[in-house]
Amino acid sequence: MSSTNGTILEVKNLKQYFPIHAGFFQRVVANVKAVDGVSFSLQAGEVLGLVGESGCGKTTTGRSILRLYDPTDGEVWYHKTNGERVDVTKLSQEEMKPLRREMRMIFQDPFSSLNPRMTVRDLIGEPLVIHHVARGKELDERVGELMSSVGLNPSFMRRYPHEFSGGQRQRIGLARTLSLNPRLIVADEPVSALDVSVQAQVINLLQELQRDLGLTLLFIAHDLSVVEHICDRIAVMYVGKLVEVAESEELLRNPKHPYTEALVSAVPPADPDIQMQRIILEGDVPSPVNPPAGCVFHPRCRYAKDICKQEEPQLIEIKPGHHVSCHLAAELDLTGIVES
Ligand code: SF4
Fold first, then answer.
1. Ligand 1 atom closest to residue 258's alpha carbon, by position in its atom list
2. Is the same domain home to 174 and 189?
3. Which of 33, 161, 283, 293 has its CA at 20 to 30 Å from residue 78's CA atom?
């Protein structure tokens, strides 16, 4: 089949369950429903933020899309440059190999994701060697170019990761990710392990590279303040499900899900004269092994009604491009969190 528009990725009802084994025969007694029916699409050149608390399933979603896990159910359609589209969930690891050049991941922790025994030249050049793209002098030149493109001095290519700061190590990881000219990158909390002072530098660099190279980015983060400036759209995830998806500005100014409302209230306002009423959610995130009936958010929702405990809301489009999963989306006015 061929793609009819600029879509690069379609995720349909993706599920990733991890079985829990117990007893003498190690029978499956339950499942951790890390991702439970997630659907969204990505346009070529778009940056989509995937946001939610730790353990909500956002990293698992990214890993399942790239087939670092074998999804339990659902479809992940990747649109190739020649117009063909393939469901990556149905491909063997062998069939995935050529796609691994185009679909890459930036890892969260620049300290543990780089092999400390390899030089920067070998770390950045490794994907080029594995995929038979370059070697010898040509490899050195390409590594040098990649280092320059992420703001690193190419004369440092014989050094080891421990000789660099956290921000520089994330740049090394970025150069390694970019080495094969990917089209789609899943950036898994790429700045959360860095000092606040260098987070903005790395995000700005990522934004520049995304624009210059026309990359499509799924940017995973646990708070909205990290993604608000870089993302075109934001998807909010809670206990394995998407609860709201909208364009960034729309989501931040006009949240329609009570969970998004709480996340938005935690974002420091750009204008210091604006006072935000911070919403502190009561209770803990429920276990994905045994999520609550009805709306998964109802035990923590200050607006919950009886219907919320009984019926699971569906993610529906309430206006063009704005999808919400809440029974009361039409009647709640959540913009009152902003007080001038
Ligand atoms: Fe709250 Fe009910 Fe909406 Fe869930 S469906 S977010 S419990 S109001």
1. 6
2. no
3. 33
- Residue nearest atom 7 of ligand 1, based on CA coordinates: 298
CATH code, domain carrying 201:
3.40.50.300
Q: Report the atom number in ligand 1 closest to the C-alpha of 296.
A: 4
3-state secondary structure of 118: coil
Residue 230's pLDDT is what? 92
Question: Could you give the number of structural domains in the chain?
Answer: 2
Q: What is the pTM of this model?
A: 0.92
In order of 126, 135, 157, the CA distances from 142 in angstroms are 12, 9, 11
337 within domain boundaries? no
Q: Which of 301, 312, 316, 334 to mutate to test the pocket of ligand 1 (most atoms within 8 A of CB)?
A: 301
Angstrom CA distances, 195 to 92, 226, 254, stand at 39, 13, 30
Residue 3 is predicted with a pLDDT of 41
Q: Is 177 exposed, middle or buried (0-12, 13-18, 19+ CB in 10 A)?
A: buried
pLDDT confidence of residue 223: 86
Domain that holds residue 38: 7-102+182-324
Look at residue 193 in the predicted model and tell me its pLDDT: 83
Residue type, 340: S
Please check whether residues 189 and 253 belong to one and the same domain: yes
The Å distance, Cα 118 to ligand 1 centre, comes to 50
Q: Please tell me whether residues 71 and 117 are part of one structural domain.
A: no
Which residues does the chain have with pLDDT short of 50?
A: 1-4, 338, 340
Q: Does some domain include residue 330?
A: no
Instruction: Clarify whether residues 131 and 58 are in a common domain.
Output: no
Calculate how far, in angstroms, residue 291's C-alpha sits from the geometric centre of ligand 1.
14
